[in-house]
Amino acid sequence: MEYRKLGNSGLQVSALSFGTWLTFGKQIDDKTADSLLSVAYENGVNFFDGAETYARGKAEEVLGKILKSKDWSRSSYIVSSKVFFGWEKDLPNQRGLSRKHIFEACDAALKRFGLDYLDLFFCHRPDKNTPIEETVQAMNTLIQQGKILYWGTSEWSGIEIALAHYYAAKNGLIGPLMEQPQYNMFEREKMEKDYQLLFRDFKMGTTIWSPLASGLLSGKYNNASPQDTRLFIEGMDWLKNRTLAKDRIEKAKRLGQLADRLEIPMPLLGLAWCLKNPNVSTVILGASKVDQLKQNLQALDVVPRLTDKVMNSIENILRNKPVL
Ligand code: NDP
What we know:
Layout: E1 3-5, E2 12-14, E3 16-19, H1 23-27, H2 30-42, E4 47-49, H3 58-69, E5 78-83, H4 99-113, E6 118-123, H5 132-144, E7 148-153, H6 158-170, E8 178-179, H7 189-194, H8 196-202, E9 205-208, H9 237-243, H10 246-262, H11 266-276, E10 282-285, H12 290-296, H13 299-302, H14 308-318
Parallel strand pairs: 3-4, 3-10, 4-5, 5-6, 6-7, 7-8, 8-9, 9-10
Antiparallel strand pairs: 1-2
Helix pairs in contact: 4-5, 5-6, 6-8, 10-14
Bound molecules: NADPH dihydro-nicotinamide-adenine-dinucleotide phosphate.
């Protein structure tokens, strides 16, 4: 496993990490979750990604229970949670980035995990109703209290992140270290355009999500319609419609042909393409089956095979490189 510095910090994060969205506490049983986590850890993965909203808190409970059952040193892994969406949702203060919800969400996540501190705590989305100052102050306080070690954002715009840095610097507070954006062959704007100045001036770290575009870039929808997947879970039509859009399927098919010619399994082509971007600190893998994870963990071996020629061939298929 390769380890990369998480942005401008001393924290080393495995280049491949492991997430729990839609799987833990929902799509898979706890025994499979245990096997997946064990395979990840035994292969050098040191970062496990959670969020208050995943399976309405259950994903973090399952992850916490598994961690507790292992004899893994707390210093050997990094755990995250995210605040914003809440999971109770009914009342106005049960979501967002107010000091109240941030403090309460952090305590609730610690309780679900059964941990004393979170390594990473993300603001899961920007909150248009809370001044960024209040959010920066609250995160800084949690760090001073020892409840979290680093804080970051997810799907914030470059301007919003820059404002958080500006306010933190002006007031001697700790600013955001890392951002968690979607990044894959189809979603490139934030990573390749919007965040360029943040990488240059703040050395921002990134923990990128949906590297396989929810499974589309594994190639399994190219010539089939497998039903035992997240896209066919009840209530996931929004994700199915987005993922299986006609133009995406067409590009995925052509990427599949390229992968065949190169004799690279298609999921590894998609993951290695993400890993090749030097602004990616870690690619968060998702998996509902142990075999998927075992395959995906080979992605680092494929990075050297992405020569300029191969990257150009990919670009010719995608035709979506952000214009700077
Ligand atoms: P991917 O885009 O890689 O999708 C993972 C899913 O694709 C798997 O669960 C599996 O689903 C399918 N898959 C993966 N590998 C293979 C393979 N080799 N062959 C066939 N199918 C495969 O990542 P995720 O969308 O899961 O995102 C990763 C993590 O990022 C999440 O767990 C979460 O921690 C984080 N995240 C953060 C978000 C944010 O807003 N900050 C939003 C979303 C995710 P199936 O078997 O069901 O088809």
